[in-house]
Amino acid sequence: MSFMDLPFYHGSLSKKACEDLLIQKGKNGSFLLRNSESAPGVICLCVFFQRIIYTYRIFQNNDGYFKIETASGVEEEVFKTMKDLIAKFEKPNQGIRIQLRFPVMKETASKTIRTSQMEEDYAEVEDRDYVIVLPSRQENTSQRSTAESISQHNRSTIYTNLRRKY
């Protein structure tokens, strides 16, 4: 399985959209993977902790193995798969600010981004600008009139049929 198939890999998600997404999630240890905007071929591990987004660069070498930038003094480690790398940093005290706890999945992300985009689009719209849309009285009246006409027709037919019998 390629790291691109991981449900928390967001591809070319922008830094701003990533930050918005993690801040909206709002849980310490929330994380996702995205492509770096500034360094082609580099993957960013973005982690939320106390309203700050920490970004760690992940490099893939020619053999396909992964290496992550961590705090200085932490021994550099190489991982065969991205899953192995993520599994290591799900444990505390591994050289990043907080352990990885809550993956932010792609599907959730797209819904959230659409919602936040819609909120931005309507941010300047005031309540007085909204119009309540209800069926007009005329529609209700015409529907009622049709129903009453059918009902009246049925009563007339029944009355006529009864008169014929007796």
From TrEMBL:
One GO CC annotation, please?
cytosol
On the tree of life, the source organism's domain of life is Eukaryota
InterPro entries assigned = SH2, SH2_dom_sf
UniProt keywords, alphabetically:
Immunity, SH2 domain
What GO molecular-function term can you cite, just one?
A: inositol-polyphosphate 5-phosphatase activity
- Could you confirm whether the keyword Transferase appears in this record? no
SMART domains assigned to the protein according to its UniProt record, in alphabetical order: SH2
Question: Does the keyword section mention Transcription regulation?
Answer: no
One Pfam family hit: SH2
What residues does the SH2 domain cover?
A: 8-104
A single Gene Ontology biological process assigned to it is: negative regulation of insulin-like growth factor receptor signaling pathway
Give the matching PANTHER family.
PHOSPHATIDYLINOSITOL 3,4,5-TRISPHOSPHATE 5-PHOSPHATASE 2, SH2 DOMAIN-CONTAINING PROTEIN
Q: What is this protein called?
A: SH2 domain-containing protein 1B
| Lineage of origin | Eukaryota, Metazoa, Chordata, Craniata, Vertebrata
